């Protein structure tokens, strides 16, 4: 079941997180130290989102998916069928392969920290079942996973968010990187990601301005999402014996 999450609430949470040292990983160090092999679940193609606070986003298995956004280019566009922001990105830029690059970065980081890593598609039938709870946190369930000691779930999404009609659109990266044990499916590692930049070259007052500057705007989102690999690396560094 999908869950609606107000983009303004996400933005506010991101600002609070940005004021601190950054979101910290939740780690069960004792159990994590028993993990030597990790299966990474490839999240699939990136979904880019864009919207104001009054425009809810849908949280699904693939991450944040923008609700229909009207007025993307001009008044005539607004009178047509509403367009999803991600559709515009795909039409103009094709597949940016951001999730491929991001996943490669996460896997390289795991290997640097001594883990043996393999990757599977999300449709692999032997994987645990992944679902969100009422607090939008991911959980795993199902039979024992026999291919590795743990399974890593990546759910990180890029968006341009605005707190309301008088607020500009700014870069937002939000999501989780979670590691679940093979048998009990306990989360031994949770890396929350809430990142937002409010003063930089990637600020737009209207969604159509983003569309007009789309290659530059999307490169900014890609850059900020790739920067989260370093956060993951830092979290693993902090728990090394």
Number of domain units: 1
Poorly predicted runs are 1-21, 55-83
Judging from the principal axes of the Cα atoms, what is the shape?
elongated
CATH topology: Double Stranded RNA Binding Domain
CATH architecture: 2-Layer Sandwich
**Average of per-residue pLDDT values:** 82
CATH class: Alpha Beta
Give the count of helical stretches.
8
Order of helices and strands: EHEHEEEEHHHEEEEEEHHH
Query: Largest sheet, if any?
Result: 7 strands, mixed
For the termini, the CA-CA separation is 40 Å
Which structural class matches the secondary elements? Answer: alpha/beta
Instruction: Say how many strands there are.
Output: 12
Helix content: 25-40%
Strand share of the residues? 25-35%
Please state the CA-atom Rg, rounded to the nearest Å. 18 Å
Structure description:
The chain is an alpha/beta fold and 241 residues long. 32% of the residues lie in helices and 31% in strands. The strands form 3 sheets. Strands 2, 3, 4, 7, 10, 11 and 12 form a 7-stranded mixed β-sheet that branches. Strands 1-5-6 form a 3-stranded antiparallel β-sheet. Strands 8-9 form a two-stranded antiparallel sheet. Helix 5 (98-112) runs parallel beside helix 8 (228-238). The chain is elongated, with a radius of gyration of 18 Å. The model is unreliable at 1-21 and 55-83 (pLDDT under 50).
């Amino acid at each position: 079941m999908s869950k609606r999450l107000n983009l303004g609430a996400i933005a506010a949470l991101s600002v609070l997180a940005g004021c601190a040292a950054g979101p910290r990983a939740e780690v069960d160090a004792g159990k994590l130290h028993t993990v030597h092999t990790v299966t990474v679940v490839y999240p699939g193609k990136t979904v880019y989102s864009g919207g104001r606070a009054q425009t809810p986003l849908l949280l699904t298995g693939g991450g944040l998916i923008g609700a229909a956004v009207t007025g993307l280019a001009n008044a005539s566009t607004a009178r047509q069928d509403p367009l999803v922001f991600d559709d515009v990105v795909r039409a103009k830029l094709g597949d940016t392969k951001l999730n491929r690059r991001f996943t490669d970065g996460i896997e390289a980081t795991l290997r640097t920290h001594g883990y043996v890593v393999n990757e599977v598609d999300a449709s692999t039938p032997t994987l645990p079942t992944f679902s969100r709870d009422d607090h939008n946190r991911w959980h795993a369930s199902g039979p024992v996973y026999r291919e590795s000691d743990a399974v890593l779930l990546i759910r990180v999404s890029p968006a341009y968010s605005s707190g309301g009609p008088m607020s500009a659109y700014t870069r937002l990266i939000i999501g989780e990187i979670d590691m679940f044990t093979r048998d009990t499916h306990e989360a031994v590692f949770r890396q929350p990601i809430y990142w937002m930049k409010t003063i930089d070259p990637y600020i737009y007052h209207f969604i159509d301005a983003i569309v007009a500057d789309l290659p530059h705007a999307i490169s900014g989102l890609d850059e900020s999402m790739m920067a989260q690999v370093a956060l993951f690396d830092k979290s693993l560094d902090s728990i090394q014996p």
